[in-house]
Amino acid sequence: MPTPAYLTLVGKSQGLISAGALGKESVGTAWQMGREDQIMIQALTHGISVPGGAKASQRMHKPLIITKVIDKSSPLLNIALCNAEILTTCRVEWYRPAGSAGREHFYTMELGDAVIVGVDIALPHCQSMETAQFTQLETVQFAYQTITWRHEIAGTSGYDFWQNEGH
Predict the structure, then answer these.
(1) Which of 24-28, 46-50, 127-131 has the lowest mean pLDDT?
(2) pLDDT confidence tier of residue 33, bands split at 50, 70 and 90
(3) 61, 87, 92, 159: which could join 114 in a potential S-S bond, CB 3.0 to 4.6 Å?
(4) Entry pTM
(5) Looking at domain 5-161, which of 1.10.3210.10, 3.90.1300.10, 2.40.50.100, 2.30.110.20 is its CATH number?
(6) For residues 152 and 105, is the Cβ–Cβ distance under 8 A?
(7) Residue pair 109/91 in contact by the 8 Å Cβ criterion
(8) CB contact burial 121-159 (16+ within 10 A = b; e otherwise)
(9) What is the separation of C-alpha 157 from the centre of its chain, rounded to a whole number of angstroms?
(10) Which first-to-last residue range defines the signal peptide (predicted)?
């Protein structure tokens, strides 16, 4: 089973958007001590492509898309979307099993000059046995100007500046 990743978000206008997102008032019994000011990511997708090959055209960064439970940050994410708020911090921390140590932070993705470009909310069918184990979820899409990848344990990193005209 994958280990959740955690998102820290700071908006230029709203400040720490992820403040209290994993607190008891926000997510009830799912709260996590020490991670109260982060958003727990249930799923994440992101991609970069070079249509036609490296010599034929420029690279295209697709939106980074996360799936998360509805929490304290949900209204603030919608405000950031509606106001095209620049996110001064958009950091995803990835964790993996680390034996007796529990989990270790091994990978980081940071988006620079990010904005939210979409928020979708879903309530699975409440009477369907196929979705009985699911909860209320939302999907958030981020576009950005820069991206940094860091493997915290191995010491490697990469960076790209992506001039997205739609951003």
Answers:
(1) 127-131
(2) confident
(3) 87
(4) 0.90
(5) 2.30.110.20
(6) yes
(7) yes
(8) eeeeeeeeeeeeeeeebbbbbbbbbebeebeeeeeeeee
(9) 19
(10) none
Nearest to 73 by CA among 138, 4, 158: 138
For 43, the token pair is 């799923």
Domain residue spans in the chain?
5-161
3-state secondary structure of 27: helix
Query: What distances in angstroms separate CA 87 from CA 11, 17, 84, 135, 145, one per listed residue?
Result: 4, 9, 9, 27, 11
Query: Which positions ≥6 away from 162 have C-beta within 8 Å?
Result: 59, 61, 144, 145, 146, 147
Mention every residue, 6+ apart, whose C-beta is less than 8 A from residue 125: 131
Closest CA to 158 of 87, 96, 126, 110: 110
Distance CA 148, CA 153 (A): 15
Tell me whether residue 37 is exposed, middle or buried, using C-beta atoms within 10 angstroms of its C-beta: 0 to 12, 13 to 18, 19 or more.
Answer: middle
CA–CA separation, 18 vs 6, rounded Å? 10
Radius of gyration, alpha carbons of the chain: 17
